[in-house]
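Q: I'm writing up a methods section and want to include an example of the input and output format. Could you take the sequence below and give the corresponding predicted structure tokens, formatted cleanly so I can copy it straight into the document?
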Amino acid sequence: MSNYEDALRKWGRYLGKYTLKWFFSRYEDFTPAQKMAIPYIKEGRNVLISSPTGTGKTLAAFLAIIDDLVALALKGELEDKVYAVYVSPLRALDNDMRRNLNPPLEGIYKLLGGEGRELPEIRVAVRTGDTTPSERSRMLRKPPHILITTPESLALAITAPKFRLRLSGVRWVLVDEIHELASSKRGAHLALTLERLQEIVEGGYQRIGLSATIYPLEKVAEFLVGFSDDGTPRDYVLVDARFVKPMKIKVLSPEVDIVTATAGEINEAIYKLLKKVIKKHRTTLVFTNTRSATERVVYKLKKVLKGEGIADVDEIEAHHSSLSREVRLEVEEKLKKGELKVVVCVAPDTEVLTKKGPVSITQLSGNEEILTYIGGDVRFSKHGGIYETRYYGEGIKVVTDSGRSITVTKSHRFLRSVEGKEEWVEAHHLRVGDALVVVDEGEEGHYRVHTEEITELRSVYLEKAYGVLDVEGGTFISNGFVSKNSSSSLELGIDIGYIDAVVLLSSPKSVTRLIQRVGRSGHSVKDVSKGYVIAVDRDDLVEDAVLAKLAMERKLDRIRIPRKPMDILAQHLVGMSLERKWRIIDAYRVVKRAYNYRDLTFDEFMNVLRYLAGRFAVGVRNLPVYSKLWMDEVEGVFGRKRSARVIYYLNSGAIPDEAKVRVFLDGKRYVGDLEEGFVEYLEPGDVFVLGGRTYRFVKSKGLKIIVKSAEGSRPTVPSWYSEVLPLTYDSAVEVGRFRRKVAQLLKEKGFEGAVRSVKRELKVSIGVARNIVRYVWEQMRYTGECVPGDEEVLVEVWEDRSAGELDLIFHYLFGRRVNSALSRAYAAVLSDEVTSTVRVTVTDNGFMLTLPSWIALSDQQIMKVIEAVNETNLRSILAKSLRRSEIIKRRFRHVAERSFAILRNYKGRETSINRRQLNSEVLFRAAESIKDFPLIKEVYREVMEDFMDVGNAEEVLRKIREGRIKVTLVRSYGVPSPFAHSIVVHGYSDIVLMEDRRKFLIKLYRQVMEKIGGGDKPDA
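A: Here is the clean output for your methods example:
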């Protein structure tokens, strides 16, 4: 009890004795984040808490709030109203409630009960899109004191007339995972919601943000708190505990020659390294950068580890970085114990067959026996309960010829019958006409197993998904379909909680991302977070080593927050119109207080209002957009239209629906599907691989694309390209700076001296240092000492005679998002100069413009193209080149849906994504000629600023014009320079041809060595 008594003396002025007594009965002491945050929260200050996973920041916020609510209850002053709102973007909300709220609430009330004190219950409730009408009615009668919700549900809640009143007394709003929200349109959506909430809470409320490691904190804090009417940020304090956990990061390279080894040899060496790490740790988390890589790694590890008896396969989970990360507490606990054996996810309306008949999967308790299909037999088996996860993504609705249907995640596995043989298949591989095995309940407890043919497959949006834990044979019957448990978390990205080590296969592409990932390891705030980064080639090795050094020095990338997204603004103006009649100037004032809209001009604001009021449709033929509110510009007011409430409730939100695009050969024969995100990258003439065959993209219409056979042609867009994380601009510049430094070391200290300096500075092995220095030395030797980096860029002209092509290789190390903007602009100017189409290949380290070899380009022509693109005209050149691109067509549908120009749900019926895409293409053609039409402006802004990085691209062009970045032009004969190899191979081969990639790289390398004297010692 001495800890508690000591804490009472230190903390009694901030927290009540019952709160402290409970806390110190469970914990030895407050973490640094808690020590810093709790006093500020109790003082009523707006606070941003930034600290790694597992450092108690969420508990710090809830503890302070619970303490105040308990104090009100003790005084008999706890009212029936919402006091605190907790907003979480991705987590399973029930999980948050159990982990962060139930223990302190139950513990404190137990202490009070032990003293004979009976207090009114502090109510906690979750309100999401899945909350039933009856649950919402209960919340109106007895509102929760703590409301847990999502950004989307909070926006709807403050618009609902009755529940809006329950929110008028809010004292605290907690925003979790704010680093994820701030960088997306969901963040802009939340920022406007918080300002609308500010309007209905007399005197305002306290804002508390919870963030992982991020930079700059001041910018994120301003996003959290917003601005006052005079344009100054509201008051806030920062709790900076980002670096309280010690961290070790080691860069590893396969123990083979990573330049000349075959793909198979490199793969074997990588798994050898992985085994070494896994042997040393109890639980290892492996991150990859693409879903395809994730699948390969999990498959290979399961074979290797199980075969050699090194570790239980369930101790290793590979995570795809862009997927959701949280599941319910039970699953986290099972994974920590090595017991997780399932990830099969179905929609909440799914029924599972039990001995007592069909039961909703959400109602399974773990006590039932459920029907399973094992070895051809149907029988009942025990199971271990259910789990639930926030999915937030595309699901698939499967319908058979009997009318039977089920909605599932893309990785859910079905039993399919092919020519009388049964096989397991994931949902995203199903096709119309497939025969699925189903089980029907017959008479007197008998069950009939037969097949039904798929008649319809439809993409649907799925917020929440469910699965069954630890069932015999790994199968269960859901809606009559036989479902198979999966043995990995590929679809969900499970939050493992406490792990011993993190392995990153290849570069994480961001210092911030590297720190966040490695920070997930370590059992407590005092434990060392251990990370291993395994490089797969020399570009990767340089990048990994630099990022690891920057991570240890805590030099983070800057967060990017979307500026003035007009589609989100349109959505909120409709929501505001439902609240009351607004003076236009008052609504503008409220919107300008949100961080994303602090620079919004009044003209821009009025254009959005005019669009919503149908003003742009006047005098414009065929513009299929109808007004969503009424506006009187003379009186300066706007308000709601009768039909708008249903539209708002059924169509609001910031997350777009994604769909599969069907591919037709010559417009006739269906050959397969592509992810919509991949199609965004395609330009007419692009060649890609599908089902082992190559096709040339011709055009698209809705969710259908037309292709021609391109057998024998090299793919220009790898199938995994849309999945690859882009290197951030800040990290790319640092890699370029390091390249320059190594070149300088080679000049000043020679090869061995440079190796020793690199080893010492980067804290890497001598082998890694030698590989890095050798790579730079080869580039210097080949190009006459030109090493492209942060102060010099190289434009390399190379004729690929084997392909009959002329390649302009731009060594611009600025990251893929910047290079996407620059390459497209240069390609547009070059195309006009030579009157020929130009193929573009983009990587983080540069880009390549490809022309037919019969086109002769002088040095003067090339420099003319480079000088023709500058920071003042980049956006206009891009806008012109993007006009008919796939990415504009796809992203415009998203913009139109968010701004209610295209409705996802009309009168309670969901419209198909294909129909929406076709309608959006019609709308785009009708609207693009209208001056200042906000949806057109927004789609170009989104593509240029959010998808590309036009701001930093303009900065690069400014530095080139001012001479701060030197442009060097060289011509390579026979073979391109060493730094060009990864760029060239990126544009010339696909992932399915990995062996060919390696052979091509080895061939290029040996040709370079022949030219520079590869047998010479570097110091010679």
